[in-house]
Write a structure and sequence with these properties.
Helix content: 55-70%
Structural class: alpha/beta
CATH class of the largest domain: Alpha Beta
CATH architecture of the largest domain: 3-Layer(aba) Sandwich
Strand content: 5-15%
Strand order of the largest sheet: 3-2-1-4-5
Distance between the termini: 36 Å
Number of strands: 5
């Protein structure tokens, strides 16, 4: 797989599972703020969990997967499987995520699962760990106009129901992005 000059982040299953967070992260990637990556294993993990919790949404979940892979070209990391066995993490079930990050030349792994990705292990591969809140806030701080435009466009796509800018800020805060919400609250007129 070819490398990328753009910042590259592997999105763990736990950040792709929630629709709001998935939409925010992919909207930022679609605006070329970073290169979003995941593997078939990660895709299967979040979709399996969502199907378990919402079996009536099978068609919508499949449509979301197809739309994601169409909207984010070159998103799927391949050729990582041979790395899994040689990796040592507190939860061996997370080794596939680190393997995908290594094979995908990722700069970061975006996850809520901080304890299972020790910084010393990631540092040895030149990969950093960021929570979704840290990551989205970093995008807003580094390339604010583009990030705000992406978030506004995302919010405006939502038609049923429509969501006001302040309601979006409140949703982000409730979903575990308090730093992002605090920043957006200060610029709510722009989203």
């Amino acid at each position: 797989m070819a490398g990328s000059a753009r910042y590259t982040a592997v999105l763990d299953a736990n950040v792709l599972y929630p629709a709001l967070l998935r939409d925010v992260l992919l909207s930022l990637a679609h605006s070329d703020l970073y290169s979003a990556k995941w593997s078939a294993h990660i895709r299967d993990e979040w979709t399996r969990s969502l199907l378990r919790d919402r079996p009536e949404k099978r068609e919508q979940i499949q449509a979301a997967v197809e739309a994601m892979e169409e909207a984010i070209p070159d998103c799927l990391v391949t050729g990582y499987e041979h790395l899994i066995e040689g990796l040592n993490l507190p939860d061996s079930n997370d080794r596939h995520v680190l393997a995908a990050a290594i094979a995908g030349h990722a700069d970061a792994i975006i996850t809520w699962n901080e304890k299972d990705f020790p910084r010393d292990v990631l540092d040895s591969f030149g990969i950093e760990l960021q929570t979704p809140d840290e990551f989205v806030l970093n995008q807003l701080m580094l390339r604010g106009t583009i990030a705000l435009t992406a978030i506004k466009a995302m919010r405006e796509r939502w038609a049923r129901p429509e969501v006001s800018a302040m309601a979006l800020v409140e949703l982000l805060e409730k979903r575990g992005l308090p730093q992002t919400a605090a920043h957006l609250r200060d610029v709510v007129g722009l989203i």
